[in-house]
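User: Can you predict the 3D structure for this chain?
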Amino acid sequence: MALPWPFRALIWFCTVVSVSFAHKNVLFMLADDGGFEMGAYRNRIVQTPYLDALAKQSLIFNNAYASVSSCSPSRASILTGMPEHQNGMYGLHNGVHNFDALGRVRSISTILGEAGSRPTSETTMALPWPFRALIWFCTVVSVSFAHKNVLFMLADDGGFEMGAYRNRIVQTPYLDALAKQSLIFNNAYASVSSCSPSRASILTGMPEHQNGMYGLHNGVHNFDALGRVRSISTILGEAGVRTGLIGKKHVGPGEVFKFDYERTEEQFSVNQVGRNITNIKLFVREFLRDAKDNPFFLMVSFHDPHRCGHITPQYGSFCERWGSGEEGMGLIPDWHPIYYVWDELILPYYT
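Assistant: Here is the predicted structure, written as structure tokens:
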């Protein structure tokens, strides 16, 4: 699916941080009331060569904001991953102000300490809120990554047709249950609403003008990512993580997007690996059995929401008849379809 660009960047950034965290330490430097007075932000007067060198290897935020431009609230937000109205630090901590965070709040130093790390104090600045959230999110993911695996599920052309996005007709109880424990994006966009470019962006952490995947990978389109690009499956594989992809792949070249275990349209019919949930279940079991106790990254890429009537009209516009048990349609044992009346479906206002 064409996931929103901020989501793709977040997935990539956090996963890379997570992989490396088990092998490295964290030095977090913070400047009190620091601003844009550095070469990295095109200031030609102030000389900051070391910061500029660091910036060349880093993620730079040009458009961001702080939820409050005050010292203690910003520091507390950085260290707890919460804005001040959640952590309780509404004002300055010192002197007559005398503000404190809520006692139930857990800071990153506490969490890291419990995980066996040895954080030290003495670092903080009124950083933009999105940056604080990103630092917090990635650090928490990093701490837990050594003990957990990654299952990444992707829906080809999936949209807002689920209860989590207030659709009262379409029934998605499992997605809704997952959403209650997850981060939901209400306002986001994709840099390009096309299959292969979005997939390449997810797997490389780069927009299409950097990874080279400007169009569709298949047939006459024949687009590939640049050979020098390194995908998340390559990086994780080199770190000793077993990687797998089940379902639609639709990116290339193979040496850039290589997985240890692949069950995709390159080996099977895309319907068999992307729509047949019984096959998908069996492939997942096979992957997990082979992974044993090793850490793994498994991407399951469903093809179901994608149209198919232009290629196989006998199966219906969205292959809704394929595997339904009708005569000549075959049967998917684990699939129990729900049929909706089309004029009852709630569609986004812009369609």
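Strands lie at 150-155, 242-247, 261-263, 296-302. Residues 121-127 have pLDDT under 50 and may be disordered.
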